[in-house]
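TL;DR need structure tokens for one chain.
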Amino acid sequence: MKTTTFALLFHIGVFGFAQSFEEQLSEAALKLTSQEVVYDPSYFSIDYPNGDVPSGRGVCTDVIIRAYRQLGLDLQKEVHEDMKTNFDHYPKIWGLAKPDPNIDHRRVPNLMKYFERYGIVKPITDNPKDYVPGDIVCWNLGGAITHIGIVVNKKSDDKKRFLVVHNVGNGQVLEDCLFNYKIIGHYTFRTM
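>> reply
TL;DR here they are.
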């Protein structure tokens, strides 16, 4: 709570107005693009709660996890706690008999289910105006390969779309890729 209060006071003091949660999430995602990260889908044993893979490593889900963590939300803990009591609601793609706090939050289908349960499910459309900063978008890259990113407050060169921060293999980057893949999920999720 102290961190959230400080962040709010900081934004009011520096900018003269309070940023919305979605604007703060957009800024947090943009900040991640300055960090050099190698795409690494390896399984890591990490601390719990507030565990993270090594700072120079990550995948698409780590962009989401790290952006929310900057705003005081630990998706590792939140997803794990929900999976402990609602395991049957989550996908059974990996053959696990129980939740694993090292990896569950780093899987796109699990984040999608968590956002469906606790966020706002937004329509999937081909209209770029429907995708605004702070939105979470999930894609199917083909076959069973899923992907996730955050829409941010920077526009495409033609000014028709907001850009996305994601990691599809080239690190945590800002790209004009909203409609490059088949969208399978669209959410807004904020902390309480």
